[in-house]
Structure prediction request, 369 residues.
Amino acid sequence: MNKLWKRWLETSFVALLLVTVFLGLSVAWWTPASNAALPAGNAITDGKALLRYALPIDNQPVRKLQGSLEDIANQLRANRRWGAISSDITTASRIVSDRDAQILASVPEDRKPQAQALISDLKTGIADLRQAVEAKDKDQIWEGRAKLLNSVSQLEELMVQGFPFEVPAEYSNLPQLKGRATVEINTNKGPLTVVVDGYSAPVTAGNFVDLVQHGFYNGLEFIRAEESYVLQTGDPQGPEQGFVDPATGKYRAIPLEVLAQGDKIPTYGITLEQAGRYRDQPVLPFSAYGAVAMARPESDTNGGSSQFFFFLFEPELTPAGRNLLDGRYSVFGYLTEGKEVLQQLKEGDKIESARVIQGAENLVQPQSA
Prediction:
């Protein structure tokens, strides 16, 4: 790998982004609606919500609970439709009161006490939220909704039973994340919190978490900052464009990895377009500000290594299923805290340190060299 890699990636990626904007604005009228696994309507632009929907669970009451609480945000933005907000709260209240047994049915026996405690917290929190709505206290509604959705996230995570698929054996020489991990990235402008999703991209997420654990990103600069496009980092000192494993002396190459909605395992090594799946949507789309994705040479789907980027486009311009990045690059997580910091970062700013603050136990090291 040489420095032409960077130049190649920059020119091709910027061109692709320009086409993305054009398509996002000009062909939205014929693009099919989102997959039925996600709520109907506009693309989801909240990274935390995308992470919830990406969990490999199938419990309709908890999904309906989640949807009713998420819809409150839509109503608040639409000039505070208090009647619709009250209806959402009523729906949420009925689910946790009348369908709690159905929710608990998806939780393993040893986790049921935790789930019951969360349901109890949800009942209390929903009652408090109703009072905030009656008082038309917008700030309290936003705060209460966020707390409730955090509890819903924890409840849904308790439902996950084991890892949902086998990663192809050809990638057994690479670290894999069999679950999720939370990474805190401390920059010279402030901290960023990223949740990486091994359920959807175990190889890509595993590589990233492994490099964080090795301190690889500590001290590295952000090398590209295209305003309203991307913020990229992960280029080490020296001629190489990625991580060279000291154990083997070889460049660690990571395959393109995209889990499409409805699939049981990710597609590896080719884009969804190359696979003829032009309208299929990834479970982790580029529809949220701060989507975290693996950089790679445009011509080499298996050429990624350590460089990654934060996606900075306003999601209204590039909704899920209406841009050319979905299915071409591996999204492996989302920014969950620190949007105001990410907005300030520029080329030349630096990652002072990165560390795994949750989920390190989900990292599985290679079985073979």
User: Anything to note?
Assistant: The chain has two domains: 50-159, 171-364.
